[in-house]
Structures are given as C-alpha cells and as structure tokens.
Amino acid sequence: MPRYTDIHSHILYGVDDGSKDMECSLRMLKAAEKENIGRIILTPHQKPDRHCVSVEGTYKRIAVLQDTLRQNHIDIKLYPGSELLYHSELTERLEAQKVCTMAGSHYALTEFLPNEDMQYIRNGLYDLICAGYWPIIAHAERCHALVKDLDNIDELIQMGCYIQMNAGSLTGDWGFGLKHASRKIMKEGLVHFLGTDAHSDKGKRVPKMENCAKWLDKKLGSQAAAKLLYQNAEAIFADEEL
User: Fold this and answer.
1) Which residues contact 111 (CB under 8 A, 6 or more apart)?
2) Burial class (CB in 10 A: 0-12, 13-18, 19+), 157
3) Which CATH number belongs to the domain containing residue 40 in this structure?
4) How much is the pTM?
5) How many structural domains compose the chain?
6) For residue 57, which phi and psi values (nearest 5 degrees)?
7) What Rg value do the Cα atoms of the chain yield, rounded?
8) Which of its termini does the chain have fewer beta carbons within 10 Å around, N or C?
C-alpha cells in the first residue's frame, strides 16, 4: 500500500497549541515517517479574536520546514492548510484569502465546538458551500449533534460536506466512548478523510496512522482502507470534488 496522507495536523512550529519549535516539528515528522505517512497538510488553528498565523507566515514556515526535511533525509511532502473554527466572518476571511484552504484548493477544514447544535452547524456549512467552498468537518466524531444521530451526518454529506475523522479516535486513544462512536460512523460509510490531529512529539497526540490502517484493512477491507488512507486525498490536491 502506498504511504498515507494526513490531512489534519498541528506540526507547523510556533503558531498554535501544537509544535512549539522547529526541533519538536522535526521529531514529529520523524515519527510520522515511521508511521508510513508520506504527505501532510499542515492545519494550524484559525480562531476569531486570537492572534493566528497569517497565510504568508504559513507558507514561509512550510518552506523552511520542507528544506529542513530534505537536509535530514525525511521523505514527507508538506502542504498548507488551516483548521478553521467556524464563525460568522469565516466566509469573508476565506474570500479575502486571509486564511489557508487545504493545499490551495476549494476544500476548507472546518471545526465546530463539541456542543454546537445542529442548526448552527448546518447554517454555517451552508454559508461556506454557497460561497463556493467544499467544507470538510474536522474530527466530526467529537460533535455531539452529529454522533447522537447519524442521519445528521448523512444530511450534511448530501449538502456537499465531507467528514474527517481522527485516526486515534478510531483506535481508542481517546477512550471507549469516542472509539465506539467513531467505529459506528466509519462502518456506516460516512467518513471521507483521516487525520492524526497531531499536536506533540510525545504522549497521545503524536502522529500515528499505522494502527488505524490495520483496523481499516481488517474491518473494511483493503479497498476501503486505501480510499481513506490516501486515495480520497488526491481530490484535495487536484482541487476536484470527491
């Protein structure tokens, strides 16, 4: 199987609650390579009323980090992105190119707080879709309104949204409840993309994909696993709807 694609990570150094510096990023990327990850979209948090990294700052840091990878013979390709906490001015910021989409595409990794109600989630995503973006709901398994009724996830998919799940949720790194919910969603075929949501070089928030890949291959089969681990991500890089 080709190497995996991680579409959600906080490996970019010194910009959010993820990697604190270049040395931490390098350790995380070495770990990612051991996990058979070959492409990573770097998705620093973008939140209203917070000092967040600019688009220019993102590209500048990625260039430095990619060069550091070459110097250290680490074969991972890095791409720009953002984890966008939804708010009323998000569409305006996207249109003004003040935040990064996913690898320069029309895909936008969009986060909602766990307790947001379905109407707020639906309306926010509809706003993004009407503006021409293709929302990917970040770690959808954490959204209570979606987990309690999988018909809500299906409704959003029918609207034109996509679902990203964290690999660690599926393998039980965050407890039985989240594992159970994640596996239920996955078995219903309601997931399009996987990410590590890695924040650190140690503990539970390291970049890990191999255990998830083994579970997918065993429970869903190699074809379904391939789509989730790397094939579906091709649509992001090609800027094409999945």
Assistant:
1) 45, 83, 84, 85, 86, 138, 139
2) middle
3) 3.20.20.140
4) 0.97
5) 1
6) -65, -35
7) 17
8) N
